[in-house]
């Protein structure tokens, strides 16, 4: 999970908690200030909450749209909350006791996130279906949160390439050509405009293996 998506999840959880708290206890929430050190996320939420147009299908192709649409929807339901950007890691330049309260809290939040990163098993599981998302793109057992078109193209090309390699090398259907695909991609990325290269597919059990 990238930092942008992680920040969005954090804001979504806060907003969801406040919304349910208000609904359950029939409260009138006071004005609140919500800070985030990801400026792009803050700008997106502030701009999107002012838009009156409905979501377009192509909007769902934006990075981490499933979480973003929930953040924006909740932000519209909680107009008392104002979103602000706070510059991160200010403690590297200024003593902690000299920082503003939002900056101190941001430092503490980053420290907690870092501790979790070190202790977590980082097990990859499909993301939960957040209300309003309706569908997810799952690839190799993981939720694709961005670059959907690229993942679909790569999947299609990979299947075709695997079929070609097996036919060309007379490999069995059970043979693993995963290393061949990786090698081919690395070879393609390393090519320049003035370089000509011949890709050789080398896998366990290939006909030309020495």
Automatic annotation (TrEMBL):
Record's protein name: RNase H type-1 domain-containing protein
Species of the source: Nitzschia inconspicua
